[in-house]
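Figure-free illustration: sequence to structure, shown twice.
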Amino acid sequence: MNITTIEQARERIMPYIKRTKLEYSQSLSQYLETNVFVKLELFQKTGSFKIRGAFNKLLSLSAEEFKRGVVAVSGGNHAQAVAYASSVLDIDAVILMPESTPRNYVDATLGYGAKVELQPTIAAAFAEIKHYEAEGRIFVHPFDDPLVMAGQGTVGMEILEDLPETTDIFVSIGGGGLAGGVATAVKAVKPEVRIWGVETVGADSMTQAIVAGHPVELPAITSIAKTLGAPSVSPQTLALAQEYLENVTVVSDEDAVQALQFILERMKVLTEPAASCTLAAASHLKNQFNQDNNLVLILCGGNLSLDDLCRFIR
């Protein structure tokens, strides 16, 4: 993956996705005492950035591969993205999801026409993939695929086009595909931009991998930010993080929910904890910024049920 493959991805997926807005937030700027903008990927079709990578992968398949169908693993947003893209392109899709997946994610994935198979854990879901590949299905990995990452990297291209003065970007990390794609795109165009990765306690596979020097499989995902719940990063996404990220800040679930409330009350936008954690991290790093900085928070997803919102706040 490089800037050329990301540019190719943009041309490929353009007819199928929204170009989401990048907006200045006075409330967040006052809160962080710098200039803050938000990239509203939660208003993307299916409610997250994941549709970009899914379409880029599926549109790159051959006609013969289309006929074989696809299989994917996801705790939520990637599931909906692959299901929706498959329905648009008339591809048969099976999505493996952990039993802990919030019901609204399962229902939405079914609603887009995919078959859903629940597995005890996300690790068990990944383990089951080999059976479907043996049947001939194409595996659409949620992050460890250059085509998927290139699709996600188009977010970074749009940010720099809309705000050439960008100095800092905060991006959530699940498996690292979004962070890797965005960083690759941004650093190719404007190397001085700082990319800050964000995880939550209990879904910090990238932080643990950086400390260990290799991918580490988490025994369980305990964070409420289920859409950050990759059991491990990959060697590829780890290498991109090591090369491009300033650091990875790990915030608590409580901080992510407080940031979620602040964004909802001040901006009237309902994010997932996996997205609001970017504000929590920027708050922790507030001393890194001044009035000359232009921060972009990628609000990567908004598929939060009302039940979960009430539970988080309680």
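We now fold a second protein in the same way, so the two outputs can be compared directly.
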Amino acid sequence: MKEIKVKCRCPKCSTQGIELKPGSKGTRICTSCWQLLRYFLDFSLHGKRVRIFCDDTGQPLDSFIRASKTKEKILGELQEGKFRAENYRDGVSSFAMNERLRTFEKFKSRLLAPATMPSFKAMVRRAAEFFRDKDVRQIEFTDLEVFQIHLEETLKELKPKTIKNHLIMLRSFLNWCLRRRIVQFVPPMPEIIVDEPETHWLDAEGQLKILSAIPMSDQPIIKFLMLSGVRIGEARALKVTDVSLQKESICISSTFSGTEYRHRRKARYDRKGKNYEIAIHPEMKDFIIDRVTHDFPGQFLFLNPRNGRAYSIQALRKIWEKAKGVTRINCSLYEASRHSVGTQLALAGRSEIQISNQLGHSSTEITRRYISGNLQLVRGNVAFLGFERLKKNSATGLPLEKLVVQNN
């Protein structure tokens, strides 16, 4: 890096090196057009020319004193390896919330699944309209509280979970700014207590009942979902090449997000979801062997018989709604498959790790949803408690009351 030079130029005639007339407080005026001269810092960094026209607060370098102080600050950041040219953008507007939120939206659009983009854009739009040109570096806990109240009062149709998602988006945005050294700290988020939504699940009998109302040609994918607990998008994206008949397993490595096929599984933020394997269920074995032996590896495992392509989410919903109408079972496909598999395994006494491996969870924190708060599981625990069974199954064959008397 070469030496940082303090230069100035006229914003009107852009002339450099002209005769200058000293002004007040270190400012200078162009003697040609009598415009205030604009100071800037000029230096080379990693083979590229860098010119800085404002300090890190967004204020223009309108004096030699301000330019010199900014120069010293940049020299210190360069020595510590913390210098970022974007932190010295011209004008305060570069630190405005609406400007930074738009940049954040463009960054996240490359990482988020297409199905989640509409709701994400809506959250960014509401935050940008509320905060407008407020400096992102001045965001405090109170501002976030006021934003929460604004959402609750102006958009009464929003559920507490949706409002919480808005604050989670802002936390992600501020952390994104922190990693780029745009802000120095991230304020704590207001706490919103959200009740866990009531979810339904089916036992094997209920699953079989609604499965019988589905056309035979569409039963394989629905049956697979009910027996494996794989996410609907991941089941739609399965291909013949994902099946290993030798190992009798299926590798879950891709998914559908809406209509877009993605070569990676669902993952939070920009983390790539790890592949995982599940065993082929004996009741699905004949169907899967037939598909693997009669179709090429790149073909989808489950094909919609109406068009010969992978099932769309709309097609599956239409099939499922018809079956619900016939059986009058009020349960979504997700609840009847993935949620039911997790709950059935929990009731069968399987550990959190076993359930997590089956469902492909990234941690057992998510798996606990199928165990905690499950009334039927609690009732099952109660069946093992009490004293009546001790009276009937005493080793001596005597009632418990007599045993107590004899021991005394």
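Summary for the second example: Residues 17-25, 267-272, 394-408 have pLDDT under 50 and may be disordered.
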